[in-house]
C-alpha cells in the first residue's frame, strides 16, 4: 500500500505544480486553493508511505514523479519546448527512478 500512497503523492505533486503555475503568483483564488489542498494531500500521502519505505527511496521517487510529470504537463499542456536535451534529461530521471525502485 505504501507504493500506492507514494504514486498518488507524486501525481498530486504534479497537480500542485501545474495549478501553482495557473494561480499566477497566488492571485487566482481557485487555482491557489487547489494548489494548497494538493500540496497538503501530497505531503500527507508521502508521510504515510514513509512509514514503511526508506526515506531515500521514497523521497527520490516522489520528487522524480513530480519532476517528470511537471515536465510532461509543461510540454503537452503549456506548450513548452521538447528539445532533445530536455527529453534526455527526463529519460535519465526515469532511469534513476527505476533503478531506485529495483534497489529497494
Comma- or semicolon-separated keywords:
81% helix; mainly alpha; 104 residues; transmembrane; transport; EmrE-like
Give structural notes.
By secondary structure, the protein is mainly alpha-helical. The chain has one domain (2-103). It has 4 helices and no strands. α3 packs antiparallel against α4. The protein starts with a helix and ends with a helix. The mean pLDDT is 95. It comes from Novosphingobium album. It is a multi-pass membrane protein. This is Guanidinium exporter. It is found in: Cell membrane. The chain crosses the membrane at residues 33-50, 57-79, 85-103.
Q: What fraction, in percent, of the residue positions are helical?
A: over 70%
Briefly note the structural class of the backbone: mainly alpha
How many separate helices?
Answer: 4
Number of DSSP-assigned strands: 0
Strand percent estimate? under 5%
Main sheet makeup: none
Amino acid at each position: 500500500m505504501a507504493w500506492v500512497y507514494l504514486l498518488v503523492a507524486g501525481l498530486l505533486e504534479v497537480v500542485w505544480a501545474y495549478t501553482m503555475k495557473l494561480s499566477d503568483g497566488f492571485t487566482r483564488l481557485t487555482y491557489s486553493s487547489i494548489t494548497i489542498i494538493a500540496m497538503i494531500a501530497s505531503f500527507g500521502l508521502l508521510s504515510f508511505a514513509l512509514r514503511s519505505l526508506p526515506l531515500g527511496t521514497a523521497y527520490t521517487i516522489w520528487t522524480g514523479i513530480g519532476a517528470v510529470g511537471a515536465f510532461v504537463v509543461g510540454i503537452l499542456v503549456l506548450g513548452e519546448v521538447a528539445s532533445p536535451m530536455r527529453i534526455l534529461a527526463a529519460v535519465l530521471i526515469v532511469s534513476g527512478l527505476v533503478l531506485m525502485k529495483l534497489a529497494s
